[in-house]
Amino acid sequence: MEWFIEKYNGLALMIQIKKRLVKKESKFQKIEIYNTTDFGKMLVLDGKIQLTERDEAFYHEMLVHVPMFSHKNPKKILVIGGGDGASVREVIKHNPDEIFLVEIDRDVIELSKKYLKVDKGALDDKRTKIIIEDGYNFLKETKEKFDVIIVDGTDPNRYSERIIKHEFYRICNKKCEIFATQSQSPFQQKDYFISMIKEIKKSFDFFKPYIGFVPSYPSGLWSYIIAKYVELDLEVLKKRFNERDVKTCYYKPELHVACFELPRWLEELSKSSYQLR
Ligand code: SAM
To answer: Which residue in 13, 206, 244, 248 has a CA-CA distance of 20 to 30 Å to 33?
Structure first.
């Protein structure tokens, strides 16, 4: 049996693989899809694990449902990145009127639909509008406004860097009521996390980091940032969860409230980032 190895600074993650199903250099990145022994299918971009079938819901549910349940009536949603379609799958559970998916790399969408199918048909749903474009350029040009904007970007590369800068966040701030993004591992990618906090701080008056568990990501501790507004009234969240009848395997209203309680070291790290100029 062979192993896929992802190295991050002094840490390596090994996942046993059965077969490589796809290896393609797209215009933007190296795309690989594997069949693994224990984690189902796995999408890798530029050597970094993006998702495995076994634990992708842990990530996509926390990225999507915390902002979506924070909004009283989310009908028009923008997902930037997320070409595998799993974030769109989770958004659709809230029965929105329309979802814009802005993904820079058509190959990620096509190969994910063919080999992964984690979108469970969401990418072909009549409410989903797929736009193949850089998220920054789309937002700069569009006249559309959104109830919720969700950024499901890759690890830092020359394209995803553009959607983690304050210029981008300032435009997002003008075009949505609630904003959320993934912000990597605060344990294993501390510098990246701090830089995102600083960029967000320049662009939003209100924001709050939260955390979740994703075993196939570096260190397993993952972070997200919500901005403009977050609902933390448990009774309100429970009511919305029941009314919308959203099925999940990780997210639940109690966890929505609890995930903002950061371990002390992370609370200190986040606070020190706030102070950073
Ligand atoms: N769940 C994964 C994670 O958090 O590690 C990311 C999922 S998804 C595969 C990331 C997507 O963002 C990729 O398909 C990539 O092509 C896309 N992407 C990167 N930069 C982008 C940009 N500037 N505009 C739009 N899509 C972008």
So the answer is: 248
When pLDDT is averaged across residues 238-251 and rounded to a whole number, the result is: 98
Residue 125 beta carbon below 6 angstroms from any ligand 1 atom: no
Supply 239's token pair. Answer: 């009511």
pLDDT confidence band for 276 (50 / 70 / 90): low
* pTM as predicted: 0.97
Shared domain check, 61 and 45: no
108 lines ligand 1 (CB under 6 A): yes
**Three-state SS for 159?**
coil
* Residue tagged 């990530």 (tokens): 59
How far apart are alpha carbons 197 and 166 in whole angstroms?
10
Q: How many domains does the chain have?
A: 2
Domain membership of residue 103 as a residue range: 56-275
